[in-house]
Structures are given as structure tokens and as C-alpha cells.
Amino acid sequence: MKLFQILTIFLNLFNANCLIKKIQYKNLNAIKYDNFVLKDNPLESSEVSRNEYIVNVGNAIDILHRELPFLFVLKNPNFDIFSSQIMLVNNKQKINISKDMYIASIKSLQTIASFSRNNPKINVRKIEYIEETKTIMCLVDVVLPKLINPHIENKWEGYFYFGVNENGFIKTHIFERKITSLDVDLTKSKKSLHWLHCNNKYRLNLCNKYTSFLKLMRVNSIPPTFLLCFSGGWIINPSLPVLVKSVPFVISTINTLFITSASMVINDIYDVEIDRINNPDRPLVNGEVTMKEAYLLSFLLLGGTEYLTFRFLPFNLQMIIQLAILQVLLYTPILKRVFLIKNISCAALISFSIFFNALASAGNTLLSANKNFGLLGIALSFIFFGSWSNELILDMRDIEGDNNNHVVTIPTLFGNDFSWLLVYAINNYNIISNSLSMAYLYNSQIIGSVIVVILSPLLLNLFKVKREKYSLESLRYYTQKSNYPLLALMAYLCGLAYVFK
Given Cys at both, which of 65, 301, 355, 470 links 416, Cβ 3.0 to 4.6 Å? Predict the structure, then answer.
């Protein structure tokens, strides 16, 4: 019975009686897509990357463009672009069906059409993706065989709307028609279609490449790095209008972000073989970005840094930038292979971003003469030891790949148990020593005690790593969540800098 209802909806498209009814054309924006939203299969509701979503949508556009015109003669249409549940909508008729039922209905239509030498023809005039409604829109001409009724117009123009879910798979198939007398120049239409398809494909490829570049730069690290830069400037000069108008501070912040992103790219270039084991989803490993593109991206980032440095920054800040770039260039090929130096140099570079931007915001005044200089030193200590412990956790996570590539780290030499104890000791020292320094600096035990409360999640997450026997999931969870207490701490220090300015 259900199959009969489905076939009725499909065959309604090619029924001659439907063609003589005056169906009012509706604008795309007038369609209420909220009525057609389906509850997806739980397996399909898992989060996927934006990159995978774009690939799936692009694949759907490509297959629809290639196979829709031959729907009634194609032996094996590609149904991989559809979700497990599909809603069919034609005028006021709506029906929820499974993917298998949808395939069976298409096969039935093909069987019916095979009894005639004059099959219905579908000419795809335009196909494009509408980002706002997550919909693939196809403007089509359907040409019906003359044997249906030779006395009526045998062509109609209409839209097929294919709504996609969060994974990029088609979940709704909507028909929207209007009766028209068509005299289509098929040659011109095919040329237009080819241009539109190539243009869509080019835009999707460009967006895909752009996403891969952001992934290569580890764009998720930009907001925390920006907050560190801002915190350094704010602690020394707690005035937003002054910081925004300070050219050295703004340029120093941009340069810090460029250098950090360039270091991520360079690290992936040198560690491509290690990442084949530790991080097989990295863009250079899976082919999303080529080596030439990675070299070009790092060159553009460092080149932009040099231009901004020598164009806008004073001599003392120029020298600091050159030392930072030198450290980035030496880190992966040399320093990363040296025992202990790897972790310390990386933590030092991250924490130094606070000092560098504090120096930029100070202008021509002596940094040590600033009232909040002691608070800046405490912030440096917090970030240095926090970054050092994170680096050790990352080494624990990458122990297999480092062993295979003979990279000497604390986990590869002494094992994860010793590494965990070292991380625990560093975190405790970081919390206790800096809490006492805060209490002494402001002569208040309460101000110092707040530090313990803010950073206590670090120790809780660390015990979770131990409890789950250093599993990759627990180590990833620690590295992801460890930034939040440190960022909350920086917000607290910025508040103190403003209150006691």
C-alpha cells in the first residue's frame, strides 16, 4: 500500500490531467522548509567536520547533474547521496519513507517507463546549492512523451528541491511545478548548465581547500592565542581605547597570530611521516593540501609578518620578532629532536607572547616601572608551566609515532607513569607557588585562593587520565579542556589589573 502511495506521488508528475491544472508558481523563499525537517537516523546525527559536509554536498550536486537527466533509462543510479529516511513532498502530499522504499519506487518508475520507447526526459537547466536553507535547487524541464495525450502541452517547468541534513546527505525531495509553454534551446541550455556546474564545482573545491588550510594552521588555536596577546597588553595598560589605538600593540598581536599559524604549518611539513601514525587525518597526510601549498602558505604567513614588522614596529620589537621566527624555523627540524628542549622551547614561545604584547602596549615607558609588572610575571609563570604540562601530555598521546620515528621524549624514555607524575608535580607547583605569589602581591589570602579554585579542574582531568590508563580519548580530553581553566585564569588576572590599576 505504501509503495502504491509513493508511486502515485511520482506518477503525478507525469499525469496529463495534472498538466492542465493552473498551479500557481511559488517563489523559493515562500517554501517553509521547517515543515519538511526530518529526525535523522542517530548514526547520521553524529557531528562531522565542515570539510566532510562540503564534500558530501558537492558529491550530491555532481551526481544529480550527471544522473537526473537519465533517471528513466539509467540501470544503476547512485543512491549513496541520500540519508536513511527521506520525505517526499508534492503539492500538499507528504510521505515519510525509508531509503530502501525510495529506491524501490525509482526502480518501479524505471520499469513502467521501459514499456514505452518514448520515455519522459528531464533537462536540468540550473543546479545550485542554497546555503541559508541547506537545499540543492534544480530547475528542470520535464518533457513528456506525446503518446500520453497529443492534444496538450507536453512540457512543464519546475523545481526539484533536495534538502540536506547536517552530514550533507539528502533527506527531503520536494516537487514545485508551474505550467508553462516552453520552447527551450537545448544547446544553449546545455552550455549554460555546463558553466553553472563548473562554477559550482569550482566554488566547492575552493571552499574545501580554504577549510583544509585553516585545518593545517590549526585555526582553533587562534582564539586562545589572541586572548594571551590581549591579556599581556591589558595587564600593563588596562584601557581598551588605548590598546585599540596603539599601532604597535595591534601589529604585534597580528604578527603573533601569523607566527603561531606558520609554526603549525612548518611542524606538519616536517612531521608528515610521524603524523601518518599519530594524526592520519592531518591535511598533508590525507592529501587535502600538497607540500607545495604548505610551503607557500608558511611563506605567506612569515612574509606578511616581516612586512608588518619592518613597516610598523620599532627596532626593539623588530629584533624580538626575528628571534621568534628563528625559533619557529629551528624548532621542528632541530629543537624538537632534542630531549627536554622540545617542551621547554615550545612553552617558552607561548608564554613569551604575553610579554611581547605587554612590551608593545607599554610604548616608550619602562616595563619594569609599571605598577602591574609583578602581575605580568605571575601570568608568564602560569602560562609557561601550564603549556609545559600540556606538551608532556601531547608527548604521551604521540608515544607510538615517536617510538617508530626514534623521537626521544620523556614518555618514550621513562614511560607514561613517570610522565604523568611529572605533569602532576608541574601542575601542583604552578598552582601553589603562584597562589602564594598572588596572596603576597596583593596582601590577600582570598585573592590567592581563587587561583586554586580556577585551576582545580586541571588536577581532576589529570586523575581521569590516570584512571583510564592513559587512553587516547582521555589524553585528548585533557588537552582540549586544559585551556579553559588557563583562559579563565587570564580573565581573572585581567580583572585584577583593571581593579588595582
Answer: 470
